[in-house]
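Priority: low. Protein: Cell elongation-specific peptidoglycan biosynthesis regulator RodA. Input follows.
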Amino acid sequence: MAQPVSGDSAGQQPNPGAGHGATTPEAPTRRGTELVMLAFAALLVTGALMLVEANQEQQLTARIVYYGLAYLALFAVAHVAVRRFAPYADPLILPCVALLNGLGLVMIYRLDLAYDERAIQTGRDIEDAVPKQIMWTALALVLFLVVLTVVKDHRTLTKYGYTFGLVGLGLLALPAVLPAEFSEVNGAKVWVRLGSLSIQPGEFAKILLMVFFASFLVAKRDLFMAAGRRVLGIDLPRARDLGPILVAWAVSIAVLVAEKDLGSSLLFFGIVLVMLYVATERAVWVVAGLTLFAGGAFVAWSLFDHVRTRVDVWLDPFADYEHGGFQIAQGLFGFATGGVGGTGLGAGRPDVVPYANSDFITAAIGEELGFIGLAALLLVYTVLAMRGMRSALAVRDTFGKLLGGGLSFALIMQVFVVVGGVTKLIPLTGITAPFMSAGGSSLLANYILVALLLRISDAARRPTSSGGSKPRVAPKTPIAEAHTVMVERPS
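Result:
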């Protein structure tokens, strides 16, 4: 049974001028900015496809026309939908996503050409990944449109916070209770496989649990600020107030560790820690969380062989080059080959790295586009996360601040975990790059994430009244005190 949670976000009235017919002088400018940026992204993607074809096939084939038209059609529909259902949303979010998704399609197509050539040489048949990735992109955009149309006000999600939390925990635990033949791939039990269809429910659980934590922290923020008992100099809330979030967090981490999903464990831990800090503005929670993380990492290294193996490969991938260290070593060789400027699209050998189109797609980009190309890619991710965080800071309700901040941080944290693992900054985790890696689960979940960010951004930028033209701005109060700011009721 869904339990409504108390708090400012649940009790406020919808934004004035929330109807889709409300317009201001800024709205056409936003539409024009987004359209120009989408056209620029399409131009870059089309040029990249032509470079790949020229370097690999030595000619331009009809396939790039089909892929280019499919890309343009998908994001043209997305642009129209965003301008229709979220007209005041940040105009840079969708173009950043389109560019990342398009460059991912380019690199997957480039690897398909290399795999096809190898299949011809070995006499084996191989299925191209690009058509399937375009299909997943279309499904993801359909889901994106559904979220935009169904969730007309992000604050309505607080009514289902506990329900989302229970469903999220169930999705996390589902692969763990299934037999290995239906859930295990490469040693990790994180999949649900039905014939040729594979889905990773943890990707969707991540978003559901973020909604739960945001709604719970809004309802219990004052109780988190009040001291229940002082332990080691830290004022802790009462056990009955802290209990639900600790139980959900502990169960989530335990399930992910049991499923050998180290990357998601790290990602989820960081998201909850940041949301707790944003809600309370108490740095002691960050210190306590990092201490718990260090202790948990040591215990996991002591108890689990797969964790110890990952750490050993991280410390010295060449010690077991033929087996555990082969993938990371080949990725490092690719970075070294690419250097500063890269070998050029289609002119490298990223296909020698296992899972180059999924887990190691950033290594493939680093080889063929070099340090400059990879830095530019990371800059696009940074702009996307910053625009999402900016919307979270500007929205009036605390729930929107927490959810928007959590979604934005989840995106940039995932990029850090991916690139950090590939570059040997941290142990390799197996998480895929958002919007770029081949695979459907991550793509579907991340488009849901973007739809929620756009909805929050639309609420933050929407005018304060249907007849005015002045957009809403962030209140000049700390995030933790923003719950005292009331939204003006429509007359």
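Strands lie at 184-185, 188-189, 192-194, 197-199, 229-231, 234-236. Residues 8-482 form one domain.
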